[in-house]
Amino acid sequence: MSTTTSTTSTTDTSPDLPLAGQRAVVMGGSSGIGEATAALFAADGAEVVVTGRDREKLEAAARRIGGRTTAYRLDGTDPAGIDAFFARSGPVDHLVLALSGAAGAGPFAELDLAELETGFAAKFWPYVRILQAALPRLRADGSVTLVTAASARAAFPGTAGLAAINGALEAMVPPLAVELAPLRINAVSPGVVETPWWDAVPAEQREALFEGFAKSSPVGRIGRPGDIARALHLLATNGFVTGVVLDCTGGANLPTGR
């Protein structure tokens, strides 16, 4: 079941801060992109709730983020936990879904369909369930911003499964933006970003991969969590943007590179 873990100390809540008086929930906020996004919201004066499965990581992230940040232990694959969270959450102005999942990758001819099913269960279905559960709590003209992945529209061998998962989420963005209006629905589609998502790859292999991606990118480097966080913050706070999937790839998805 979901349990509240910790709350940091209160800092400046001056009305001069652009998000003062607003509340943001960042699902998957204990590290990487989610944590960086929560930090931007908190710096702008928002009350922030970060969720994740690991209590210690959440508490540490909340301390790093500062401001009015609450850590709430929640498994995004637990429907009952999701329902319980939103039943007690209070109003939400901005919802960011930054849950990650790696299952479903590999050459298609050898792709384990059970692994692909696990991939959908870890990301696609949680996003859908969370959004449905959150709707009664979301401000009518608030925002929902999804973190997908550039694999959705790339053509890299071995990523067909990941493309299916993230592509399914991205395909939902425009119709949801119309159906749920004036609630704004957007997504950020990151390229290769240095986050704990890559920790399972041995260090030397990971460094070689990052170097190769950096050389092929027009900007000459891979992404950082803050790069994606700023894109998420933009879409969440710009009231004139909805139905958009924003690529944040350093140009790696462009037809030509270096």
UniProtKB/TrEMBL annotation:
Regions of compositional bias (Low complexity) in chain numbering: 1-14
Q: Region Disordered: which residues? A: 1-20
The family database entries (Pfam families) matched by this protein are listed as: adh_short_C2
Its keywords, alphabetically, are:
Oxidoreductase
Task: Say if the entry is tagged with keyword Coiled coil.
Answer: no
InterPro entries per UniProt? NAD(P)-bd_dom_sf (IPR036291), SDR_DHRS6-like (IPR051122), SDR_fam (IPR002347)
Gene Ontology molecular-function annotations: oxidoreductase activity
Q: What highest taxon heads this organism's lineage?
A: Bacteria
Assigned protein family = Belongs to the short-chain dehydrogenases/reductases (SDR) family.
Identification of the protein by name: Short-chain dehydrogenase
